[in-house]
Amino acid sequence: MTVPMVRARGVRKHFGHLEVLKGIDLEVRQGEVVVVLGPSGSGKSTFLRCVNHLETIDGGSIHVDGELIGFEASGGRVRHLRKREITRQRREIGMVFQQFNLFPHFTVVQNVIEAPVGVRGEPRDQARERAHALLRRVGLEDKAAAYPRQLSGGQQQRVAIARALAMRPKLMLFDEPTSALDPELVGEVLAVMKGLAEDGLTMIVVTHEIGFAREVADRVVFMDDGVVVESGTPADVLDRPASPRTKAFLSRVL
Amino acid sequence: MSLPDVDVDVAGAARTRHPLRWVASIVLLVLAAQLVSLLVTNPNFQWDVVARYVNAQIIGQGIFTTLLLTVIAMAVGVVLGVLLAIGRLSENPVARVACGLYVWFFRGTPVLVQLVLWYNLSYLLPEISFGVPFGPEFVSADTNVLITPLLAAILGLGLNEGAYMAEIIRGGLMSVDHGQTEAASALGMSGARTFRRIVLPQAMRFIIPPTGSQVISMLKATSLVSVIALADLLYTVQSIYNRTFQTIPLLIVACVWYLMITSILYVGQSFIERHYARGATRNAPQSFWSFLTFRRRPTPEVPS
């Protein structure tokens, strides 16, 4: 049996008195595309941010490719990892944000090569060549010299995807990647993501795009109020939801 | 009530009159005329004396000291400011409080007092030594020998500047969107690299304009060192007019040079601002070199 790409067990997280995650169990197999749905405030974005340790979890555990994230367990004792080691773990996990978060003072191609050159020590020429290939893949090779603010939202998000892919991640996290986009720009970003899914990349996608979930997801997870309410194939969760909470949510968004 | 005349054409409409603008303009022009007439007709300006001294070698030496002091004190201030700003934003509460107290003290006391204090440090500490705290000493020196007027000036101006720069830099760092740090973290960049490559360059846009003003203030603040007998531009002209009693013309010489240098600084600042504005607007900024060589600015790229 192969190691699951992500294995979350009883993940808990609170901000002050507010308990945001109340024990999340989730497994993602290698090459699987999991779409996480749920109303806002359900904890789905927080969970995603826990997977690459942008948020420190308060209980439970998250393993990515067999490695415990953010902590080290040995001899029955658990301790927090040092920043250096957390940084090393994050290199294997790509993330795409709702607000793109491109580096505005760098051109598009500089955005893409910054981490491979600066963090992985890749030769600049080689990184540049690969960056152009990645930009071609997201359909933006002609924008390599532009600055992010000169691009539309959809183009910026596609650059952000190329930037994350440049680190050759084994797992990609998408945090509402189309929520900040004008409706007519959503399609171009989803098309790129669909391509990645078809190439076998392991992806966790937090989104409100039910159509994308139905078409691309191997599995749909519905979260509400800090717990996983149900999980299954798109057809099961979207067409034959077992829980009344899922039904209520779907009737609002469909 | 009659229907409005829909066939009206507003082309060639009469302009609105602004009589008050005319009055204000005339008053200002009269005042300007008076000033020019004063400058030309009043013999006490002694323009011939101004002309004689404005290029004098001794004035040049004063200018050199003023510029040297500005550059060194500003460099001390910037380095100190970066460290203090990082300290104030750090997660270490002791560092936060210590840096906060530093800023409080150095911004809360006049820089003139600080200068005189450093100059007279020997009254407080006759000897300065390095060694283990509360333990043995390795090197020690007489404070009066160690603290020359130049060092006192650098300490006084630089340490004071550090407190102001700390606040400017802290404000700049805080103005960078937190999403930038998160994106860098998610790419596996270290904290130091994120600061150097992502946060600081973007903060520079907010740091440069007030820092430019600080440089200009510093240039003028160096004139305070004349009280500790350091031969800067002001002290040099003072030492001349104390002999010749040509007070006004020599002060004009000093003003001419201060104005000249600040004008150059203004131009330099505007180009540094443009450099750090790259990516901030949709139009690419014109670089200093393309300005010098009269190249046209590139046409802005229109998002498709």
TrEMBL record, chain B:
Keywords: Amino-acid transport, Cell membrane, Membrane, Transmembrane, Transmembrane helix, Transport. One of its GO terms (biological process) is amino acid transport. SUPFAM superfamilies: MetI-like. GO terms for molecular function: transmembrane transporter activity. It is a multi-pass membrane protein. InterPro entries: AA_ABC_transptr_permease_3TM, ArtM/GltK/GlnP/TcyL/YhdX-like, MetI-like, MetI-like_sf. One of its GO terms (cellular component) is ATP-binding cassette (ABC) transporter complex. It is found in: Cell membrane. Residues 63-269 form the ABC transmembrane type-1 domain. Pfam families: BPD_transp_1 (PF00528). The chain crosses the membrane at residues 22-42, 62-87, 99-121, 141-160, 221-241, 247-268. It comes from the Bacteria. PANTHER family: L-CYSTINE TRANSPORT SYSTEM PERMEASE PROTEIN TCYL, MEMBRANE COMPONENT OF AMINO ACID ABC TRANSPORTER. Belongs to the binding-protein-dependent transport system permease family. This is Amino acid ABC transporter permease. It comes from Nonomuraea diastatica.
